[in-house]
Structure formats: structure tokens, C-alpha cells
Amino acid sequence: MNMHLLSVKWAARFIFLSAALLAGPGHHNAAIVPDAGNVSRDELLTAGPLSGEYELSATAGGNPAMEILPGNPDKKRDESRIKPWTEDRRYWQFRGRPLLLLGGSDQDNPFNHPNIGGGGLEAHLDLLASVGGNYIRNTMSSRDRVDPDSDLYNDDNLYPFDRDKASGLYDLGRWNEQYWRQFREFLEMTALRDIIVQVEIWDRWDYGEVWGGAYAAEAWSAHPFNPKNNVNYNAGETNLHPERWEGYPIFRTIPELDDVPIVLSFQEAFVGKLLSVSLEYDHILYCISNESTAGEEWSRYWAGFVHCVAAREGVNIELTEMWNAHDLTDPMHRRTFDYPELYSFVDVSQNNLRDGQVHWDNMQAARQMVAEPPRPMNNVKIYGGSALGGGITEGTSKFWRNILGGIAACRFHRPGPRDGFFSIGLNELARTQIRSARMLEEVFDVFRAEPDEYSSLLSGRDPNEAYLAYIEGQQYAVYFPRGGAVRLDMGRAQGEFVLQWLDISNSRWIGETILTGGGPIEISVPDNGHWIVVIVRKN
């Protein structure tokens, strides 16, 4: 049996949820965890309903550890689910085949926007799929409201908890069934279209202030977890303040931090309910937080929680955390990079707040950090608009640098309060990029190519002028963000090759040229704008 080892470097506490907790909030069933470094499947799964917390303090090899043994996962289902590709774990596979994840959407929480894009959620997903898109983000957020001045905001988001119409207060012990119905319907729609969903459980923008939105008050002030908005606890019983959010105390409720069980029990119930829906599907990736600034303890607690619930249900999953630091060499990111047993892939979206050559260099540095063992690197948010990411043109350049740079997943971030504010979502420009990327895939093997990390095979190159991925002696692809000319060293590539240009902006191929390898070749872009030249050994 394959064992998923979850190691932690402190005496961690975890609640192993039973079906009763998954059925509704407020139930706090746990399994006893004995004082042993290895917890067997039987010990994990057979405990009866108990309340309280059980501490795992024994060490194995000097560090606290536990082995999570999945409960007899269905082999056929496990082989077909989304997971790292068996031939190269830097990419994903689904239904047993490798795939490059590409996407864009007009909202980050599409399940809570049934009228997205004017035509509705199903039409939005159809539009994505029609151009080859197969990747979408879904935060569990609820802060958006109808904006009569914007076609991008057509829905008042729902919260997961029931609200009394008379008092206006939420009962955290009762679900809002429509919220969860929409979530399930969204997963059904994406499953039918083979669109991979990256679910983010906690988004700090729901619990603080909103930047760049039309309704700044609809965050912590309006949230059901705010003590002033529910019937389940008051501020004096918690670490929460009705009017202040600074420091995000809502992300400090776990025992290792502020230890606020009255709030944590409802947070656990929320995540348990989420998993009771999502674990039925095989096309889900999990991310603990969006742009986390919380302590490392918070992320590890929830990573352990999700792994344990999945193990109890006999399901293998893929999980990560997204940190806020824009520099991928920041030590904050080592919290994910250095723990492959806990985080089976990494999300490096914040690198998309860097531009040009720095964007590429930092991405390549991070790729080396997670090279052993190799893991997929996802970009669930590609910034590029008037407010973030260096502008729209730079945003599309990041998409292509990511693809040639060995990134496993790329999605254009939502537009924001107006088109092109944060990024381009799923507008025509975004669809053109996805369509052109699929054309590249038809002739160039992105899965077996390697990025030329230092552009060592390109000469006469200015910073950010050109980027190369290649299979030595077989295939070469050079991306030009804004025109230019370089020399490509094909000294180790003998024989005849076919050269053709991909006009990215128009999704079309331009001509074919036969050339002979064995030395440097001059490459000059046909026109300004985004171009990729592909050179493939002639059969």
C-alpha cells in the first residue's frame, strides 16, 4: 500500500473528522491518536465519536510524524484523477494522460456567480473549453455584490451559513443550502467539461479590507464569522473584534496560536462540509489560502486537516499553499518548497507581480528549488492590467514565459472592478492566448522540453528579448515578447529542420522554412508583437 507521510516539526494536534462532522456544523467528532510516531489506518479510522483534541507528540527520527494511510482508495479512480504525471512529476496528468493546464475566468469564485459574463456560468465554462481552456480557480469567497455600473458583477454572493431574515444574524450551526448547491453544480459542470478546478479554502480578502473593489465594506464587516453577525459567540469569547481585522486574528484560532476552540469548531465544520462535496470529484486541486500572510502553523494545521479527512474517505488528493511574498526567493516560500510530503505541488502566482527578465529569473530559481523531488508549479493567477502586473501586454508575456519556463498551469487573473484592471480574465485577448498555446502544443512537446534557464543557447540577446525551451537536437521554441532578433546555437543539432512562426496575436502559422543544423542560426521576428518560432527536426 502506498503511504502518504505527513511530517510536522512540532507537536501537532489534528482533529480526524467523522461522518457526523461532515454532515453538519457544530459536531466535533475525533479519532484518538495514540502517542506513537506511526498511526495505522485502523487506529485512524475506527475511533468512535469523541469530543476534544488529541495531541501527537511522539517523534520518529527526531521529528513528530504520522503516516496517513488512505482508506482503501479505488485503484481505477486513483489512476484517472488529477495528479502529477508519472513520467515527469513537474506536470499534471488526468485520465492517465499528461496535460498542460491553461485557463482564465472573469471571477475568482465562479460558483458564487451563476450569472457570470451575462450568459451565465455554464456558458462561461463553455467559452473557456471552446478555446482549449481546462483550468479554473475557485475561491470559497462571498464578498462580491451586484454592481449596476459593471457587467462583471451580476450576483450578490451567498455565504455558507443560514441567515435569519428578521434579525439579520447568521447561525453558524446551520448551512445555507443554496451556497452548497451552487458549489456542487459548479463541480458537476467543470467535471463534464474536464476543466480542472483549483479550490482555495481561505481568502484573506474576505476577512479584512477589499482593495480595488466597489464594496469595501463587504469583507470582515459583513462576514458571518464576525461576532457581531452571528448568534453563536460574542467578541468576548473569541480573539475577534467586530470592527478591526488587522493581523487577521481569524487565522490564529488554532491551538498552536491563539487557541480559540469556539471559532475553530465552526471553521473545521466549514472545511469539513466543503470536503464532503469536493471529495466526490477527481478533478480538484486544493490550496489552503490565497496570498497567505498567516503563520506557518495555520497553513500546516489545515493541510493536515484536509489530508486526514481525505484519507478517512479513502481519497488521494493534491494540495498546496500560496504565500503572499512576491519574490519567490523569499524564505516565506520555503514553507511550501521544503515540505513535499505535505504540499504535493506549489503555486507561484505571486511571481506574476514581477515583470520581464526578473519574472523569468525568479521562476527558474524556484523551479530549481522544487526540482528534488520534482513537483508541478502552478500559476492560478497571472496578473497584467492597469493596476497590477505591468500592464496587459506584459500580462500576456508572462503567460508565454510561464509555458516555455516549465510551468504546469497558467490562468489569467480576473479583470477586477473593470476590464483589464487586475488582468484580462476570459476576454477575447485571453482566449487568443489559450488558443495559440494549444496550437504550439500540436507541434512542440512542452512536456519533454527543458527551459534554457540562463539563455545560454541564445546570443545577441538583450534582457527580456527572447526565451527558449528545447529538446536538444530535436525541437526548439523561442518566444519573443516584443519582436527582436537573436542567434540560436544548434551546434548539437545535426540534420534538417523545419522552421515556422506562430503569430500569437492572430492564432496562425506563418510559412515553413527548411534549414540545416550544426551551428548557429539567425532568427529575426517577422513583425512586432508576440511571436514564437518553432524549429523541429524534419522526419
Question: What does this entry show, briefly?
Answer:
23% of the residues lie in helices and 22% in strands.
Secondary structure blueprint with pairings:
Blueprint: E1 4-7, E2 12-13, H1 19-23, H2 41-45, E3 55-56, E4 59-60, E5 63-68, H3 75-80, E6 83-84, E7 92-94, E8 97-99, E9 101-104, H4 121-130, E10 135-139, E11 161-163, E12 170-175, H5 177-192, E13 196-203, H6 261-278, E14 284-290, H7 296-312, E15 319-320, H8 334-337, E16 346-347, H9 356-369, E17 377-382, H10 392-404, E18 409-412, H11 428-443, E19 450-451, E20 458-459, E21 467-471, E22 475-480, E23 485-489, E24 496-503, E25 508-516, E26 520-524, E27 531-537
Parallel strand pairs: 9-18, 10-13, 13-14, 14-15, 16-17, 17-18
Antiparallel strand pairs: 1-5, 2-3, 4-5, 6-7, 7-8, 11-12, 19-21, 20-23, 21-22, 22-27, 23-26, 24-25, 24-27
Architecture overview:
With 539 residues, the chain is an alpha+beta fold. The chain has 11 helices and 27 strands. It has helices spanning 19-23, 41-45, 75-80, 121-130, 177-192, 261-278, 296-312, 334-337, 356-369, 392-404, 428-443; strands at residues 4-7, 12-13, 55-56, 59-60, 63-68, 83-84, 92-94, 97-99, 101-104, 135-139, 161-163, 170-175, 196-203, 284-290, 319-320, 346-347, 377-382, 409-412, 450-451, 458-459, 467-471, 475-480, 485-489, 496-503, 508-516, 520-524, 531-537. The chain has a 6-stranded antiparallel sheet with strand order 19-21-22-27-24-25, covered by helices on one side. A 4-stranded parallel sheet has the order 9-18-17-16, covered by helices on one side. Helix 9 packs parallel to helix 10.
